[in-house]
């Protein structure tokens, strides 16, 4: 595999993190269409991200990471997504796992430190494996079918997971499972990909985010050490998730799809300036109809920026309350809806060229539509908002 010309540059000092990330996004964008077309995984992008020390952004400083704040993580995700949304999604999931582990500190300390240091030293990515064929997403309730059986030698894990984003490159899977006890407990179990019994079925063939390698994970009597049982509790103990954990998921996904919509806007602006029909003699960018439509896109993207970064900054400053999780979900609902609408406006504006595979707008549209399937989904967010408002008024 040939190396990107940007790779060498990432090993040298850069005066500004965002300048570095912007240069990486441009490089990633040069390959994004090919990976999307083939459904191939962008391994080279993660080599570059490692060289740029961007895989340890949410790892605590005590273990060699950067412990970056919410706005910085949002900015990095947004910029990377503007180049390659699939790369950004895998990176976001990796960031979330480290951030959540750092916030809760419920993992075995030795195991946690080792994973952190591996993520600093090399390409050692991790992501959750939660969704199952029968259960669907655990966010909707229910016990997982994946079983962790306690033995004298450790945990024996068996199950089938779907939509395991980043599976071609992940070093570890954080598997949601239940114990086989009479009163089962549920929790996360750390499964290294190289352990016997771990298998990937290449099932991912989606409309959007095609290069994420979100294949099925098959676990067949995988024996893991006892300390790899990361956070095992009765199901009812998970009823009230940490508000900051919810905030991270929603804000960083919002930033990702803001990046996709911004890339679509940038391509559209370039197209409208370059396109000069012979019957007009001037570019489409000079016509009021097109200026008005692009103005609507600008308004949507501006609103998203304000929503995402104002809340991210408040979190970093400690200026938040117990409703921060729901507030971040509200941001996700609004920002992803705005992002989808922004790309749709571009498609409506230029017609057939927008749906041509030779132009990136149709890929951005397929990618931005994937924002609807990430937990929490829109109906769950609105239900929570409605309950909060109605109960508040009743009391």
How does this model look, in words?
The chain has three domains: 7-123, Acyl-CoA dehydrogenase/oxidase, N-terminal domain (Butyryl-Coa Dehydrogenase, subunit A, domain 1, Orthogonal Bundle); 128-238, Beta Barrel (Butyryl-CoA Dehydrogenase, subunit A, domain 2), CATH 2.40.110.10; 243-388, Butyryl-CoA Dehydrogenase, subunit A, domain 3. It has eleven helices and eight strands. It has helices at residues 6-9, 17-38, 43-51, 70-83, 85-104, 109-121, 243-274, 288-316, 324-350, 361-369, 378-394; strands at residues 125-129, 147-151, 154-164, 170-179, 185-192, 198-201, 215-224, 229-234. The termini are far apart.
Helix content estimate: 40-55%
Q: What's the end-to-end separation, in Å?
A: 63 Å
* Structure annotation, total helices: 11
Count of the domains: 3
CATH topology of the largest domain: Butyryl-CoA Dehydrogenase, subunit A, domain 3
CATH homology superfamily of the largest domain: Butyryl-CoA Dehydrogenase, subunit A, domain 3
List the helices and strands in order: HHHHHHEEEEEEEEHHHHH
Major sheet, described briefly? 8 strands, mixed
Based on secondary structure, the structural category is alpha+beta
The global form is globular
Overall pLDDT, averaged?
A: 92
β-strand percent reads 5-15%
Count of beta strands: 8
């Amino acid at each position: 595999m040939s190396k990107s010309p940007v790779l060498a540059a990432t090993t040298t000092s850069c005066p500004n993190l965002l300048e570095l990330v912007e240069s990486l996004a441009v490089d990633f964008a040069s390959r994004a269409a090919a990976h999307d077309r083939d459904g191939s995984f962008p391994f080279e992008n993660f080599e570059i991200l490692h060289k740029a020390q961007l895989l340890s952004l949410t790892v605590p400083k005590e273990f060699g990471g950067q412990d970056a704040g919410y706005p910085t993580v949002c900015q990095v995700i947004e910029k990377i997504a503007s180049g390659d949304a699939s790369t950004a999604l895998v990176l976001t999931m990796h960031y979330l796992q480290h951030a959540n582990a750092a916030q809760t500190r419920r993992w075995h300390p030795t195991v946690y430190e080792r994973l952190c240091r591996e993520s600093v030293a090399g390409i050692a990515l991790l992501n959750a494996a939660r969704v199952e064929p029968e259960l669907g997403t655990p966010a909707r309730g229910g016990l997982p079918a994946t079983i962790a059986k306690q033995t004298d030698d450790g945990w024996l894990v068996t199950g089938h997971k779907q939509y395991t984003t980043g599976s071609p490159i992940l070093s570890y899977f954080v598997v949601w499972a239940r114990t086989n006890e009479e009163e089962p407990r549920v929790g996360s179990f750390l499964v290294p990909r190289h352990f016997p019994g771990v298998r990937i079925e290449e099932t991912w063939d989606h409309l959007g985010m095609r290069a994420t390698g979100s294949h099925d994970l098959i676990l067949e009597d995988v024996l893991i050490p006892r300390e790899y049982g990361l956070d095992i509790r009765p199901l009812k103990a998970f009823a009230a998730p940490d508000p900051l954990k919810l905030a991270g998921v929603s804000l960083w996904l919002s930033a990702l799809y803001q990046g996709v919509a911004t890339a679509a806007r940038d391509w559209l602006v370039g197209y409208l300036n370059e396109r000069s029909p012979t019957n007009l003699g001037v570019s489409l960018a000079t016509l009021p109809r097109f200026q008005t439509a692009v103005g609507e896109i600008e308004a949507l993207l501006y609103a998203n920026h304000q929503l995402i970064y104002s809340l991210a900054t408040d979190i970093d400053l400690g200026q938040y309350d117990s409703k921060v999780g729901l507030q971040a979900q509200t941001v996700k609902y609004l920002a992803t809806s705005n992002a989808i609408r922004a790309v749709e406006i571009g498609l409506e504006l230029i017609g057939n060229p927008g749906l041509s595979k030779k132009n990136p707008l149709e890929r951005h549209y397929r990618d931005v539509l994937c924002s609807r399937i990430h937990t929490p989904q829109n109906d769950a967010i609105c239900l929570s908002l409605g309950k909060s408002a109605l109960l508040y008024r009743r009391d």
